[in-house]
Amino acid sequence: MRREPGGAATPALYVVLAFVWCLIFAIGAAVLYYLICPRLSAWHPVLARAAFLVLAIPVAACTFFFVLQALSFSVGRDLLAFIPFAQRRALVMALFPLCRVLGGLLGQSREEVSASCIAFNNRIARWAKGLREGGELLVLLPRCLQHSECKQQLVERITNCQQCGTCAIAHLVGLMKSYTFAMAVVTGGELARKIVGDIAPSRIIAVACESELVKGLQEISRIPITAIPNRRPGGPCRDTVIDLEEFEQVLHSFASPRRRDQ
Predict the structure, then answer these.
(1) pLDDT at site 133
(2) CB 195 within 8 A of CB 139
(3) Residue 176: pLDDT band with limits 50, 70, 90
(4) CA atoms 45, 47, 52, 53: torsion sign
(5) 261 to 113, 174, 177, 255, 258: CA distances (angstroms)
(6) How many CB atoms lie under 10 A from the CB of residue 179?
């Protein structure tokens, strides 16, 4: 899988898998039209033309979308700004189960396909406008980011952190002194959805493993989400870590500096 110089995944794998599926859809539509066209023409010529449009338009639109999106990534300019963000991400995530299957057949792991999908999402989320003008930025962190021996109750109340420096949460809480944003530790998707509903943020930065991030992207389509996969040196769901430099770069892009009087 192609990666950025810093080691992060790129959208390239996901774009290729999506293109292959567009080709498969096109071949399938052509075969289906070839089979039904004679009978439809016998009934009425208009039916054959209508069937062609019904089959061709979705395939052409899907192909057009991914072609322009790939070009946007190449030139660094959003060529699809006229399409609402929610519709763009919905199409990207709708293909994920198929791309995951195809990736597996081509020797790519689920984590690699998920990471490339996340990178694709992050590119389009970077260009997207916030859901609400002036809305709050929300940072969602997984419970496993907290050190396993820490006894502080941080879920939904991250200010309980004593900032001992044992885990990355201490550093992230410290960033709240410099930037204006809300932050919460969550135990899963249900609590994350509740917090999103309560805060109604304009944008989200989410940290989790690839599988949980993809689930979140599939469930929340209206709000631009920048997803940052964590790292798991001790195995899944225990003492995970994140790239603090990457996180601060993302935070700096979206969060407003905190005023001195706040």
Answers:
(1) 53
(2) no
(3) confident
(4) positive
(5) 45, 17, 11, 17, 8
(6) 17
Q: Take residue 155 and report the two structure tokens written for it.
A: 């879920």
Closest C-alpha to 141, from 195, 179, 90 = 195
Cα→Cα distances 191→8, 43, 134, Å? 28, 55, 24
CB–CB of 129/122 below 8 Å? Answer: no
Residues linked to residue 204 through DSSP beta bridges, in sequence order? 138, 225
Q: Are 99 and 12 in contact (CB under 8 A)?
A: no
- Taken in order 164, 170, 171, 176, the sign of the CA dihedral is negative
**pLDDT(131) > 60:** no
Domain boundaries for CATH 3.40.50 within the chain: 131-257
Quote the pLDDT of residue 219. Answer: 86
The one-character DSSP state at 6 is: T
Complete DSSP assignment for 137-167: EEEEEEGGGS-TT-----BT-GGG----SSS
Best CA proximity match to 98, nearest among 23, 17, 9: 17
Q: Decide yes or no: CATH 3.40.1710 for domain 131-257.
A: no
Name, in order, each residue with C-beta under 8 angstroms of 177's C-beta and a sequence gap of 6 or more. 258
Per-residue pLDDT tens digits for 84-105: 888 899 999 999 999 999 999 9
Strand partners, 205: 139, 226
Q: Please state, in angstroms and rounded to a whole number, the distance separating the CA atoms of residues 146 and 157.
A: 13
> For the segment 25-39, what is each residue's pLDDT rounded down to a tens digit?
999 999 999 999 888
